[in-house]
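in:
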């Protein structure tokens, strides 16, 4: 499959995912040896309208490890000409003249798609509001494959803010590409997984159930995908936020319910939904997961930029 823009998780087929994961494994070795200089004549622009630690730094580190260069604005709403009223489309047209690839994070659902519609160079969606975060899902799935040995037959609990969680939405789309996956959605009533994802899973014949009791689910799964209740998405609905926060917290007690071979993932940042005592357990895989973001993004950039020297 030829990739150009990366906008939503469902555009990946299984063969492309497995090819990407093989390349990611090779990138682990490349990064360990300090990187390569193959893309020294390529420039990546990162345009972030929302805060980020992992996604922006790992994309930028990935481009540097491939030998490429980076131009960036970390607070685009304030430091780009959007603050003077420039449209997103005009901003993208201008950056097309300076960079070979654009990574964009935006607060509006569909912003990356709008950017791609006017862009000659590849656009990567690094999160569009409560829409999707496809590259996070790629690294999540890579981590699952690497840590558990495979994806077919997986049992997974997705926990927390599923209604507003773009990472959980994108991961659900990717899980739909594999066989015999069972998904347990564990969320407060206000933050249940949305109907579009449930409809997609039914269409792909993926078994799922909606649950409220985390303790009942923990012994049944190989992967726990914990997420943060995202205060910033509630706006002035503070009472709703207060109703949902703190309902599902993984602690040392939760570990006793989990299988010895299970793993705990989290896209991060975490607030209080995984207590620090969990960090030292070998099943806590979330920091390894964040590290994998570097390798997967190196492989993805290489896939999009093409062979070194090609333009
Ligand atoms: N997981 C993730 O998107 O983290 P950042 O917001 O720090 O990029």
């Amino acid at each position: 499959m030829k990739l150009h823009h990366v906008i939503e998780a469902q555009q990946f087929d299984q063969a492309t995912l497995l090819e990407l994961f093989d390349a990611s494994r090779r990138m682990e070795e490349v990064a360990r040896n300090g990187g390569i200089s193959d893309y020294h004549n390529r420039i990546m622009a990162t345009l972030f309208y929302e805060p980020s630690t992992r996604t922006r730094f790992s994309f930028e580190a990935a481009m540097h490890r491939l030998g490429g260069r980076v131009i960036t604005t970390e607070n685009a709403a304030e430091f780009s000409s959007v603050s003077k009223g420039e449209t997103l489309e005009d901003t993208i047209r201008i950056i097309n003249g300076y960079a070979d690839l654009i990574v964009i994070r935006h607060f509006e659902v569909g912003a990356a798609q709008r950017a791609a519609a006017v862009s000659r160079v590849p656009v990567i969606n690094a999160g569009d509001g409560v829409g999707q975060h496809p590259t996070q899902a790629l690294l999540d799935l890579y981590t699952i494959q690497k840590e558990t040995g495979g994806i077919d037959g997986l049992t997974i609990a997705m926990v927390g803010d599923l209604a507003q969680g773009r990472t959980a939405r994108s991961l659900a789309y990717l899980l739909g590409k594999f066989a015999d996956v069972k998904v347990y959605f564990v969320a407060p009533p206000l933050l249940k997984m949305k109907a579009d994802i449930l409809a997609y899973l039914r269409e792909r014949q993926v078994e799922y159930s909606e649950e409220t009791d985390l303790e009942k689910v923990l012994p049944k799964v190989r992967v726990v995908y914990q997420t943060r209740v995202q205060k910033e998405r509630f706006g002035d609905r503070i009472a709703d936020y207060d109703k949902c926060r703190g309902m599902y917290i993984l602690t040392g007690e939760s570990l006793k319910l989990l299988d010895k071979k299970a793993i705990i993932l989290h896209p991060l940042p975490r607030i209080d939904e995984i207590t620090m005592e969990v960090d030292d357990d070998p099943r806590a895989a979330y920091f390894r997961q964040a590290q994998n973001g570097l390798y997967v993004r190196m492989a993805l950039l290489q896939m999009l930029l093409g062979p070194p020297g090609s333009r």
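note: The chain has twelve helices and nine strands.
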